[in-house]
Specification:
The complex is a heterodimer of chains A (about 350) and B (about 700). Chain A is mainly alpha-helical. Chain A is built from 9 helices and no strands. In chain A, α4 crosses α5 and α6 packs antiparallel against α7. Chain B has about 700 residues and is α+β, with helices and mostly antiparallel strands. Chain B has 22 helices and 22 strands.
């Protein structure tokens, strides 16, 4: 299972923290108190985010990961509620509203609730298929999120400036770990997206082979080769992560597999469909002839066709098995490499 | 001799008998318009552009009814028209009031006249004719029909008709050397007998159709009303459907061909079973008019007023295993096609594939029709077979591909979309608009392509509907160069719905799901737009390289049909990424100059125009020598034209793929057909040009 850990909650980490303070719908004595109240909310979220990232990085079981995700969602929801209940500072609500908006978008993205923030209809119209729609949605959502993050940071800076507060970026331990983890997950996600496109086409291919839909088989095969080739070019430009080449290698193995499967294995399998059709035609023609009209040449041709189609069937089956085996080995290898990679690079 | 009937006379013949096709016996007691409200309700609900039931509608129904009953004014008299005309603007009110005066009166008058003619016309075949006397047989154009003043004038009209029919039958069946007055006189008794038999048979059958006259008329009115919404909306009776559904068993021998009554009552090919013998010959298309059939060793039997289902049954159920059909193609040429019954083999590839060898190896795929006319879920359409053929052709190392959609009258949109997808990587193929869902984009279901090299799509004025969608999409993506004459110009989609209101709500695209009962309606529910937002309704797909079409092509277009929906555009954002065209403008310019300089197609254009002029006459001569002259003159023009489009092409030679070669050695009939197909390709001047253009494309890369 691939889970992209989203990188947005990072944007607000530099919120000034000047000591714990309870939030309530009170009026604040100073603008820095007001700012700090918001920072406190953020601190809770950062801590939950770290727990979540950590559980993914250490390969905790799915229930544990899900529990951490639920806690994170819950903190965002609570924080949002508290902050939105705050009054403006001396009538200025821009900071409050910016933070609320940011939380809303974070929540939706983390909860895969894209239709709340992205115009899914426009996405469907613009994208040619489910794969593209998925990628486009992610892209749009991340853009929305980072825009909202940037806007929030800017509002905060303006707020500070207009109230003569000097913002000092103070990184605590947790937020530092989160920032590094974010980088690690980002790298992994980039590599995942490199093989994602041929991976999807490979999925379509399996389906099309099962239904003998040659149009779909051939199109997916060609698309898979194109994407594998493109992927290999993009991958070549991607550096190792702190000297660690392992993910790159696993990704490259997958891309090479898709390429080879498209160029060699699938054609060997579709050859069976062509031979089968030819055999059926020969068979019909053969059977249409009365026994006494059949020449030795006809009989030989019929027998040859049987042998040919049987041989093609054998190739079909063995190639199919081999391809399935290689595919699952390589995907397993990638998953293991990911786990190792995260465990190694996400700080403890 | 082979006769070449003038276009007018051809339609005249169709007409003469179209009358007879639509009729039947006594008027039924039930109200002829009881199902009309249900039909109108259905059309109001789902038709893409429903019309108001007002005086305009009434006038259209009036005109269409008369045109359907008696397009050439051979049955009704002026007094009938005078009596019916009073309903001209009140049919709408009558329908709304559940009153059917117009329909009842029209049917009644029509029946009376027919019964009289049933007695009169057979006696006319015995009349004395002076084949040296001059005179003209004048026909009015449908829509501007002139009706005889009285029964005397009508008798004169039919007398002339009989005379012309006798002369025509004689010329048709006689070698050129024996085509003279003496031989005509000598053969007259048998010609009279044959004509009388034919006339008797048709009048009797048509006055007493199986469904009963009243029922047949009810169905006619429903069809007339549907067609007043647009020419592709039609009503089919439950009986029609049964025939439509009768499927050809895979075990039985069959010619694989279905017939229907044509626009003017002619017998037309409505369906070729993919892979069946008729399909395999590559010489027949949907919409071809079948003029006659001939079993080996027997005389030809004319089919001008035949019952489609009877003929279908007769050909399929019994009789010899071989038949010659004489058909008139949509564009006017008359062709004889030899068919041998065979098993319909569903597992077999039915796409015809050839190699064109010359300067460059080029693949040729011919798709005369789509496999299914209606949308069927789950079945693999022709795209799957095209894919398989492309695998074969790619292995042969082709450098270019020519996809021939000439005479492809359309069919399932799903197949067209899948086919487009074979050549387009990903993206929208067509925009469909209906009244329920509005406009929606239909996309290529599969990412990726199967063939990426230079592609030419051949079209002509008989390429319609789904084949236009395919050609238009490939043109908009700059994926194919379209070569030929502008396509037919139909950009609408239809569905089949039961008329019964109980079942109406199930929007069906599949005949198999329709219950019998009140029959069913083919309704135009969708407008189709190209990804550019424009529609090819009326204009057709305009080829990048235009070549003159067949003579008369311009006269048979969607834009000329009564009540055709006018073209429209759509304002919908469609995201598509066409391929970069390269410097096509200058390449196309060079190709056009070359074609002009070489002169082949200006010769085709000129001979076609001359032929059309010759055919464009408002009467037929009644003197035998004049009639014979006319036929010979026209024959000569046809010959000049045919010679201009069919002669050996020296820039390529047509060949089978390796896979086909192996199979053909065992199948003698197929081998014969194959030889003829190769020969046809070799002599096809349009294909010769397409090959030349392909070489230009390959070399410009």
């Amino acid at each position: 299972m691939h889970k992209i850990v989203l990188s947005f909650l990072i944007a607000g980490i530099c919120l000034l923290c000047s000591g714990p303070q309870m939030l309530s719908a009170q009026s604040f004595d100073s603008p820095s108190d007001y700012l700090a109240a918001m920072g406190q909310e953020h601190k809770t979220i950062t801590s939950d985010l770290w727990d979540y990232m950590n559980s993914v990085a250490r390969g905790k079981n799915a229930r544990k990961v899900e529990k951490n995700r639920a806690e994170l969602l819950n903190s965002i929801r609570t924080a949002r509620k508290k902050i939105s209940a705050l009054p403006g500072y001396e009538g200025d609500v821009s900071l409050r509203d910016g933070v609320v908006k940011y939380f809303d978008i974070s929540y939706s993205v983390l909860n895969d609730d894209y239709e709340k923030i992205v115009d899914m209809e426009a996405i469907a119209e613009q994208s040619y298929d489910a794969m593209e729609a998925y990628l486009l949605t992610q892209e749009e959502a991340n853009k929305k999120l980072s825009d909202a993050g940037a806007a929030m940071v800017e509002t905060q800076a303006e707020f500070a400036k207009s109230h003569n507060i000097e913002l000092i970026e103070k990184e605590d331990k947790t937020s530092g770990r989160v920032l590094i983890a974010n980088e690690v997950f980002g790298y992994q996600n980039r590599l995942f997206l490199i093989y994602f496109k041929p991976y999807v086409q490979d999925g379509y291919l399996i389906e099309a082979l099962a239904s003998k839909d040659l149009t779909a088989i051939e199109q997916a095969r060609n698309a898979m080769i194109t994407y594998a080739d493109e992927g290999l070019k993009v991958l070549a430009k991607e550096p190792a992560y702190n000297g660690d080449n392992s993910l790159k290698l696993a990704c490259e193995d997958l891309l090479q597999f898709y390429k080879k499967s498209g160029r060699v294995s699938i054609p060997a399998m579709t050859d069976f469909f062509v031979k089968e059709e030819k055999f059926n035609r020969i068979k019909s023609a053969f059977e249409a002839k009365k026994q006494k009209e059949r020449t030795q040449e006809d009989v030989d041709q019929y027998n040859n066709a049987i042998n040919e189609v049987n041989a093609a069937l054998e190739v079909y089956n063995s190639t199919g098995q081999e391809t399935n085996k290689t595919r699952s080995e390589l995907l397993n290898a990638w998953n293991k490499a990911v786990q190792k990679f995260l465990n190694k690079h996400v700080p403890r | 001799m082979k006769t070449h009937l003038p276009e007018i006379f051809r339609s005249a013949k169709v007409l003469l008998f179209s009358v007879v096709l639509l009729l039947g016996a006594e008027l039924s007691a039930q109200s002829p318009c009881k199902d009309i409200p249900a039909l109108l309700e259905l059309l109001e609900e789902v038709h893409v552009d429903p019309r108001s039931i007002d005086d305009d509608f009434s006038e259209d129904v009036y005109a269409a009814s008369l045109k359907r009953l008696d397009p050439y004014g051979l049955v009704l008299l002026q007094e009938d028209i005078a009596a019916l005309e009073k309903h001209k603007t009140s049919i709408d009110n009558q329908i709304l009031d559940g009153d059917c005066r117009f329909f009842a009166e029209a049917a009644e008058r029509f029946e009376i006249r027919l019964k009289a003619l049933r007695i009169l016309v057979p006696t006319l075949t015995e009349a004395n004719f002076d084949f040296e006397a001059g005179g003209k047989f004048v026909l009015s154009d449908p829509g501007e029909t002139l009706y005889p003043a009285d029964s005397v004038a009508q008798g004169k009209l039919w007398t002339d008709w009989v005379k012309v029919s006798l002369m025509d039958d004689f010329i048709d069946e006689t070698p050129d050397s024996a085509c003279d007055l003496t031989h005509l006189e000598a053969r007259l008794p048998e010609l009279r007998t044959a004509l009388k038999k034919r006339v008797d048979l048709r009048f009797n059958r048509k006055l007493q159709p199986e469904a009963g006259f009243g029922r047949a008329m009810d169905h006619l009115w429903l069809d007339v009303i549907a067609a007043c919404f647009d020419p592709h909306s039609r009503y089919f009776s439950p009986d029609d459907r049964e025939d439509f559904l009768a499927s050809v068993s895979a075990e039985e021998l069959s010619f694989g061909i279905r017939f229907a009554e044509g626009e003017e009552g002619s017998l037309v090919i409505s369906h070729l079973v993919p892979g069946g013998p008729a399909w395999t010959t590559n010489e027949l298309s949907n919409g071809d008019v079948v003029l006659s059939y001939q079993f080996p060793g027997k005389d030809p039997v004319k089919l001008l007023y035949a019952d489609p289902y009877e003929i279908e049954y007769m050909l399929e159920s019994s009789g010899p295993k071989e038949v010659d059909l004489k058909v008139r193609k949509r564009h006017g040429t008359v062709q004889e096609v030899h068919l041998v019954k065979g098993k319909i083999r569903a597992d077999e590839n039915v796409i015809k594939t050839f190699l064109l060898k010359g300067t460059h190896p080029v693949g040729y795929l011919s798709l005369p029709g789509f496999y299914t006319e209606w949308e069927n879920d789950g079945k693999l359409g022709c795209a799957n077979d095209v894919a398989r053929q492309l695998l074969t052709l790619n292995r042969e190392g082709i450098k270019g591909l020519i996809l021939d959609l000439r005479d492809n009258g359309g069919g399932s949109m799903k197949e067209a979309i899948e086919l487009a997808g074979i050549f387009v990587d990903a993206g929208p193929i067509v925009v469909q608009e209906d009244r329920v869902e509005g406009a929606y984009t239909i996309k290529d279901p599969n990412r990726g392509t199967i063939y990426n090299g230079p592609l030419i799509v051949m079209v002509n004025g008989s390429s319609a509907s789904a084949s236009e969608v395919l050609a238009g999409t490939l043109q908009d993506y700059n994926r194919a160069v379209i070569v030929g004459s502008p396509s037919y110009g139909k950009a609408t989609g239809q569905v089949i719905l039961p008329l019964d209101p109980v079942q109406k709500n199930a929007l069906l695209r599949n005949f198999d799901d329709v219950e019998l009962g009140k029959g069913f309606v083919k309704v135009t529910t969708d407008r189709l737009y190209r990804v550019t937002g424009r529609s090819h309704q009326f204009s057709g797909v305009i080829p990048n390289i235009q070549l003159p079409g067949y003579p008369g092509e311009a006269l048979s277009r969607e834009s000329l049909r009564a009540n055709a929906l006018p073209p429209s555009t759509i304002d919908k954002k469609v995201y598509w990424r066409p391929l970069t065209p390269g410097d096509t403008a200058s390449l196309f310019g060079k190709i056009r100059s070359r074609i002009r300089a070489e002169g082949r197609f200006s010769k085709i254009k000129n001979s076609g125009e001359q032929l059309l002029n010759e055919l464009d006459q408002d009467h037929l001569p009644l003197r035998f020598s004049d009639f014979l002259d006319m036929e010979r003159r026209e024959g000569a023009f046809w010959k000049v034209w045919e010679e201009s489009i069919s002669f050996p092409q020296d820039n390529f030679y047509s060949a089978n793929t390796q896979a086909d070669t192996e199979i053909l050695t065992m199948d003698t009939w197929r081998e014969e057909i194959n030889e003829r197909l190769l020969d046809d390709l070799q002599n096809d001047v349009y294909l010769g040009e397409a090959y030349r253009i392909m070489c230009n494309l390959i070399e410009s890369q």
